[in-house]
Specification:
This protein is mainly alpha-helical. The protein has one domain (3-138). Helix 2 crosses helix 4. The protein has six helices and no strands.
Length: 140
């Protein structure tokens, strides 16, 4: 298998593991996210523990991976180089947060939940895909 195909396969495997982790953590249930945001009501701290686990895993993982001179399935590490904050980044982050808070879904759990499609999930997925097209149209 060539390097490009191997990168694609590894990307799919990573995505499947991510989706499985979200499902096992209960993050495919939008009520969990809404419950986390409801600090004055029936607050649900589950999301905080999932995010904390992700931060710890990433912290350890980066230290282990960057001991290597190159990734297993590519010639070099591909890391972002931009560090500036512009209106597009801040606006996109705000729209992401608003959509996540209103729907209870972010893209990972939304796609992992497709098997149990509901009208609110379908509306969120349609809005997400429309957002991708709008972002591509105005990117640059």
């Amino acid at each position: 298998m060539n390097a490009a195909a191997m990168r694609t396969v590894m990307g799919y495997i990573a995505g499947l593991l991510f989706g499985l982790g979200l499902a096992l953590a209960g993050m495919t249930d939008p009520a969990r996210v809404v419950g986390f945001l409801d600090i004055a009501g029936a607050w649900d701290p589950t999301l905080m523990f999932v995010l904390g686990g992700a931060v710890v895993t990433t912290f350890i993982g980066y230290r282990l991976v960057f001991r290597r001179t190159r990734p297993l399935f590519d010639e070099a590490f591909q890391l972002p180089t931009r560090r500036d904050l512009d209106a597009k980044l801040l606006g996109g982050a705000a729209l992401f947060g608003i959509g996540w808070g209103l729907s209870g879904y972010c893209p990972g759990p939304a796609i992992a939940s497709v098997g149990g499609m509901t009208p609110p999930l379908a509306a969120m997925l349609i809005a997400m895909v429309a957002g991708w097209f709008v972002a591509r149209r105005y990117a640059g």
